[in-house]
Structures are given as structure tokens and as C-alpha cells.
Specification:
globular, seven-stranded mixed sheet, 18% strand, alpha/beta
Length: 751
């Protein structure tokens, strides 16, 4: 493919506007060329989970094409189309590395694994099981993440198991769990096709989830009087197709969401019968409030008061509420990091759920609250699989004695052997490494030295004298592997087999297409090897990921996440299956909690919906007041700073920057400024500008953007040489422990 400019890139990705690629499949999905072998798989990038086929020839991945029978209907974004280029990238790590002095040098697998085992054993012997930890990823295969979770929690007996989904989805998890009792969306992508109003908040889907955005744009173009509402401080590519864009001061959207609820009640747009039969009301952590309490709470959130607090217009807040609650119309909400990466991220999630609950717009085609996911297996592998510091597999909690007992039986452990204390969440884990409380850390399939907030602080922790860090990674150097004591070459994507679970509860099998490059090994094999060396081989006895999958099916059986009917054979034959799916003959569940669709709802349930995740079978509407971000602007740091994605790249760029076309498209992070801010600083597009926060300082090139909000600077996260996370705030939500990437204060000066 020839090089292209950004406009051509956006056009090829079908995400620049509502008018692109709506009528036909992208040319990125050609007919099968002669001589290629095709293997069914899933895209390696975002949480949309686009199905595709991998074309190989002479042992190499040479092409991909979209799966026309999957939810993406054959469409891929350009990142997905260019996946073959990552497989043989020049920085693929082909053999183990061990640090000797200040250098990482080539080593044999035996030398590297013997060192890893010895250092973990020494740390455990000296400091106990909690002296070690595992930091995983929403990109690992389900079987890989399960192997790590079982090794550390059941074998080593530490709950210090966390991962990068803590950085992106933890507040969404806590929002679902606190509202419905169980995690994960109840709706599906198909709801987009039935939505009359689409409410996007904290999501730039056009760039972060382009194939889903194509579906949204198609609904807008072909549906009757479809309204799109976007709440975002910035005027993004997504907002360009909006009928209504509400821009607001960072961190004030809780006031707007409460004001929308105020309007719903004031104008009779709520469903009184649904409220009476299906809802409870709560404040703090207890569901002990009443509808009258909630209405009194909302009295303080008139549109006028919310407008004064947020900078949005009162009339726009009213319009958004009316479109959301209109009788006889459906509404689908979608959100992602703009809500989640906040110190009040859980509260923000709760408030979106509130709008659906009081209107009864839930569990119906086109009516659902849907959190979009950033990674391909954050849902299936980590959230569902219980691979966080406070969770156990499939809705179980570390602190719950009954749940620990269930897992002890399933894992064949003596009663009372699993530790009852939750482990260290991500930021706490790296602070423990900094303080010397954590002596050995295993990092799998992620790049925390670039992706953590306040990155310089934790980069120093990774190189603390006495700390031992092992990284499994397909590429080297990354900003994390360069700091490691041992780097193990990991098989990449099409070089291994396993399951991904995407944002709509869809589980899909990625089939192996080619052999691993060089000496690389699947993370699954690496973890099983480590288990044997640490004396826990009997806990990880599997010869193949398929055997581990059968164990997972058993562990999920009888839970609210039941997918026992997803045999390996059925996954291999299907184009994705949605749980709950408790038996082999079951078709899967389009919408949870709905009688006639969800097998966990009794056939004789009195109403169309049953929120079975909570003991009282009700969902909770939470009274959550407006509370600002942890850090605010002031005279010294007068500008807001926020971060995000651009369509050309993904995460820390280790994969996308290996694609020729993507390297030439928006690879360098720039600081986007409003013209008035740039003028006050004497800065023009292309000038160097130094941004400084209370944590660090980075020089970017400036880009003066008409769509920027005055007083707000934006930078993307994909550039390893200009790391925006040197500036971001590592303050966390007290419930989800998710950091506030999205909001901090900076000062700017021409460099």
C-alpha cells in the first residue's frame, strides 16, 4: 500500500464522518487470492472484537479480510487491515534477554526461566507471598490470563494480581456491579440498529471504535429521525455527526447527568410503573433511600444550576433529556474512558445507568446502557475471569468467604487456604514496588512504563535497586522492556490459539495460523513452565489452552456468567457466541435480564425484566452529587489537560508504529490548543510548546485546533518519545482504584 495522508487514512477507516463507507464493505476485505490459507480469528486491537480471517502463505501472515458473518459484517478499520505488518516487524523479540550490568543480553530459555523462578522463590522466602505480584493485560488470551490468575492466587497464595483493565474499565465494572449486582453490559451491538437516540458521553468512538462508529453513522443515515447527542469537552470527530454537542468544563458532567434526570421527572418522561417494580435507591454504599429522597436530591440540579457549574447551555441540557426520555422511542448510551478514567468514575457510570432506569429504557432492542471497551480481551479474560486484585473468576470476590470456598473446591485446595485480603490494585502495586514492599513483578502483554499515569515516578520504581521485573513481550525495546531484568519473547496474535471476549459478551476463538517467530513462546506455555519451576505444576496441568478452556467452562457453570455450552468445537464453528450460554444447545443471550432471552430469568417471571444480580432482584438508582476532579486549574497551572486516542494508533504504539502507513500518520503526539490559548502564548501550529504539570514536563509540537475547548489542551497517548503520561495524575477513584488520566492541570510555554 502506498503512503497516505491523514484525510485518506480517515476515509479508508470509515470513521471521519457519517457519510463514509456506509453502503459497501471496505476494499480491505478482498476475495480469497489463490494460494493463501485462511484461518478464522479476531482483530488484535480494540474491544469491538471484529471477526476476521488471517491469510498465510509459506508460513507467513500476508493478508487479513473481515468476517462477513460476524457482527462487524466484514468491515475492518485500517489498523486491523494492516495487522500482517506487525507479525514480522523489525523489533520483534526473538530470544530471551537477561540483564547483566546495565545491558540486556541474549540468553537461553533455561537460563532466563531458571533466573525468574529463583528470584521469585527468594522474594517469597524472604517477604512471603505478597512480596511478589502479577501485572497482566486486557490483550492476553483468556487461557493465558487464567493461568496467571490461578498460579498466583491458588499456587503462590497472593492476590497481588492486577492488570491494565484497572486503568481503563475498573470504573465501568464498579458501575455495573453497584447498579445491577453483576458486571458487563446487558445489551449488544445490535441495539445500535434499533436506537432512536444515541447518547455518547466520554467516548470519541469515531477514532477509538471506528467500526462501531460506522454502525452508528449508518443508523443515523438510514433510521427515521435518529438523534445523536454527544457530551464531550472537545469537538471530536464523533461530535461532527451529532445533532447536539454539549461541551462542558472537565469534571462537571455529573451535574449535567443529574440535571437531565431532573428534567425527566419534571416533564413526566419517567416510567413510574418500572420504577415501582424494579428499582431501589441508594446513597454512599447502601441502597436505603426512597424515590422521594431521589426527587428531593434532584431538586438541587436544575438545568440552570448545572449550566452554571459546567459551562454547558441549560437549553441544551433540557433538549438532551427530552430526546433521551421521549416516550415511544428507544435510547442507547455509550461511554468509555472519558467517564471511567476519573476519581469519580464510578459515580459517573452510576448516573448514566440512572437515566435508563428511571425511564425504563433498558432491556429493549435499542435501549441499553453500554460501556465501550478499549482492549480485545479486557472483558472476557480479566473482568469475567476475575483477574483483578479483588476478584475471583466469574463474579466472585476475594473478600467473600462463600466465594473463596467455591474456588477452593473447584481448584482442589484445602478449605480456608485462599487469602481473604484483596491484593494490590495497579497504582498501589507500583507504589509497593517503589517502596520495596513488592520485590518481584511479572508483567505480561502490556507496557506500564508508558501507560501508567505519573509515568516517571513508576519508571523509577521499575528500576529500584533490589526489585526484580520480568516482562513477556513480543517487541523490544518498549518503554517497559528496556527497564526489565528479564525479557521473555512472547508469541504474537496469529502465532497462538485462545479466546477473546469483547464488549458485548461475545466470546470468540482465535485460531493459530503460523509458528511463533524465532524462539518466542505463547504466554500460556511460559506461565505453565514457571508454575512447574515454582512447585505448582499440578495446579496448571494442561497440555493445551483447550484443556484450560474446559476447566474455565466448569468454573463458570452455575454463575451469572455461565458459558458452559461454549465448547471448543462450537467456538471453532461459530462467529462468536454471547453469554449466558449454559448448555451446548443454547443459542446465546442477546440481552441479559430479559425474560425469554436470558436463560437465567425464570420462564414464569412476572415481568419482562428481572435484575437477578442483586438479592432483592432490583437495580439501584444512586444519589451521586457533583464532585470535581482531584486536581483543578489555578493561577500557577491555568490550563486543563486531557489525553486520548487517535484513529491511526493504538495504546502505546508498539504494534501500530510498526505499520508503514501508520508511522506516517499522526505518529507524533502534538499538543492541541484552542486558538485563543495559542494566541495568548504566542504559539502557532508547529511551534514547540512545553507543558508542565505538578508531576513532570514534556515538550510537544503545537497544533492549533478550532474544535478545541478554550482552556483545555489535548494530547494522544501513543508516542513513546513524547509520553503524555509524564503529566497525568495518578490519583484514583476510591471505589474502582482507577486513575484520573482524563483531567489534570498544566501550564504551557513556548519552548
Amino acid at each position: 500500500m502506498a503512503s497516505m495522508n491523514r484525510r485518506e487514512f480517515l476515509k479508508a477507516s470509515a470513521a471521519a464522518s457519517a457519510l463514509i463507507a456506509l453502503g459497501s464493505r471496505a476494499q480491505a476485505a478482498p476475495d480469497d487470492p489463490r494460494g493463501l490459507t485462511w484461518t478464522k480469528s479476531v482483530c488484535r486491537y480494540c474491544g469491538t472484537g471484529c471477526g476476521l480471517y488471517v491469510g498465510t502463505k509459506d508460513g507467513k501472515v500476508v493478508q487479513v479480510k473481515g468476517d462477513t458473518e460476524n457482527h462487524n459484517a466484514g468491515f475492518l478499520c485500517l489498523k486491523g487491515f494492516l495487522l500482517p505488518q506487525i507479525m514480522n516487524a523489525p523489533d520483534r523479540l526473538l530470544h530471551p534477554l537477561v540483564r547483566k550490568g546495565d545491558r540486556l543480553v541474549r540468553a537461553s530459555w533455561e537460563e532466563a526461566m531458571a533466573l525468574v523462578a529463583a528470584r521469585f522463590q527468594a522474594a517469597i522466602a524472604q517477604g512471603g507471598p505478597d512480596a511478589v505480584g502479577f501485572y497482566g493485560s486486557g490483550q492476553g488470551l483468556t487461557e493465558e490470563t487464567y493461568a496467571a490468575n490461578k498460579l498466583f492466587k491458588a499456587g503462590i497464595r497472593t492476590n497481588n494480581v492486577d492488570g491494565n483493565p484497572r486503568l481503563c474499565m475498573a470504573s465501568a465494572v464498579a458501575g455495573y456491579v453497584s447498579t445491577y449486582g453483576k458486571d458487563e453490559p446487558m445489551g449488544c451491538y445490535e441495539d445500535i440498529d434499533h436506537a432512536d437516540t444515541i447518547f455518547l458521553i466520554g467516548s470519541n468512538a469515531a477514532e477509538a471504535h471506528p467500526v462501531l462508529f460506522r454502525r452508528i453513522a449508518k443508523r443515523k443515515q438510514t433510521g427515521k429521525d435518529v438523534k445523536i447527542v454527544v457530551l464531550d469537552p472537545r469537538r471530536t470527530a464523533t461530535s461532527r455527526i451529532a445533532d447536539l454537542h454539549l461541551s462542558f468544563a472537565p469534571g462537571t458532567d455529573l451535574a449535567i447527568l443529574n440535571a437531565m434526570a431532573h428534567v425527566l421527572f419534571a416533564e413526566g418522561l419517567v416510567d413510574e410503573e418500572f420504577i415501582a417494580r424494579h428499582l431501589a435507591f441508594g446513597e454512599g454504599t447502601e441502597a436505603g433511600k426512597t424515590l422521594a429522597d431521589y426527587r428531593a436530591f434532584l431538586a438541587g440540579y436544575t438545568p440552570e444550576k448545572a449550566a452554571a457549574a459546567s459551562g454547558a447551555r441549560a437549553e441544551d441540557i433540557v433538549t438532551a433529556a427530552r430526546w433521551f426520555g421521549a416516550k415511544g422511542r428507544t435510547t442507547m448510551s455509550m461511554w468509555t474512558m472519558g467517564l471511567n478514567q476519573r476519581t469519580k468514575g464510578v459515580w459517573a457510570n452510576n448516573l448514566v445507568h440512572n437515566l435508563h432506569l428511571v425511564t425504563g429504557k433498558i432491556g429493549l432492542p435499542g435501549s441499553t446502557p453500554f460501556s465501550l471497551t478499549g482492549q480485545p480481551n479486557a472483558c472476557g479474560g480479566v473482568r469475567d475471569g476475575g483477574a483483578l486484585a479483588h476478584t475471583l473468576p466469574y463474579g466472585r470476590l476475594v473478600a467473600n468467604e462463600k466465594h473463596r470456598g467455591e474456588m477452593e473446591k473447584l481448584w482442589g485446595l484445602p478449605a480456608g487456604s485462599l487469602p481473604a485480603k484483596p491484593g494490590l490494585a495497579t497504582v498501589d502495586m507500583f507504589r509497593a514496588l517503589e517502596e520495596g514492599k513488592l520485590e518481584a513483578l511479572f508483567v505480561m502483554c502490556t507496557n506500564p512504563a508508558q501507560s501508567l499515569p505519573n509515568a516517571d515516578r513508576y519508571r523509577k520504581a521499575l528500576r529500584r535497586e533490589g526489585a526484580f521485573v520480568v516482562v513477556t513481550e513480543a517487541f523490544h525495546p518498549t518503554r517497559t522492556s528496556e527497564l526489565a531484568d528479564v525479557v521473555l519473547p512472547a508469541a504474537l496474535w496469529a502465532e497462538k490459539e485462545g479466546v477473546y471476549g469483547c464488549g458485548e459478551r461475545r466470546y470468540q476463538l482465535l485460531e493459530k495460523s503460523v509458528k511463533p517467530a524465532g524462539e518466542a513462546r505463547p504466554d500460556f506455555e511460559i506461565l505453565c513452565d514457571l508454575a512447574r519451576r515454582l512447585g505448582h505444576g499440578a495446579l496448571l496441568p494442561w497440555r493445551t489452552p483447550s484443556e484450560a478452556w474446559d476447566e474455565l467452562r466448569t468454573i463458570a457453570r452455575g454463575t451469572a456468567y455461565d458459558f458452559h455450552g461454549m465448547t471448543r468445537e462450537r467456538l471453532r464453528a461459530s462467529h462468536g457466541l454471547l453469554w449466558p450460554l449454559p448448555a451446548e444447545g443454547h443459542a446465546g443471550t442477546t440481552r441479559r435480564y430479559v425474560k425469554g432471552e436470558d436463560p437465567l430469568v425464570p420462564a414464569d417471571a412476572p415481568d419482562r425484566i428481572l435484575f437477578y444480580g442483586r438479592p432483592d432482584k432490583k437495580a439501584v438508582v444512586w444519589l451521586r452529587p457533583q464532585k470535581g476532579p482531584e486536581e483543578t486549574v489555578d493561577a500557577e497551572y491555568p490550563l486543563w489537560f486531557t489525553t486520548g486516542r487517535v484513529i491511526e494508533h493504538w495504546h502505546t504504539g508498539t504494534m501500530t508504529r510498526n505499520c508503514q502507513e501508520l508511522r506516517q500518520a499522526n505518529a507524533e503526539t502534538v499538543a492541541e490548543l484552542h486558538p485563543a490559548d495559542a494566541s495568548a502564548l504566542g504559539i502557532r501550529t508547529g511551534d514547540p510548546v512545553r507543558l508542565t504539570s505538578r508531576r513532570g514536563s514534556v515538550v510537544f509540537k503545537a497544533r492549533v485546533v478550532e474544535g478545541a475547548r478554550q482552556g483545555l489542551v489535548f494530547a494522544h497517548m501513543h508516542d513513546p518519545d513524547r509520553m503524555c503520561n509524564v503529566l497525568t495524575n495518578d490519583a484514583v477513584d476510591p471505589v474502582s482504584r482507577q486513575p484520573e488520566f482524563k483531567i489534570c492541570a498544566v501550564k504551557a510555554a513556548k519552548a
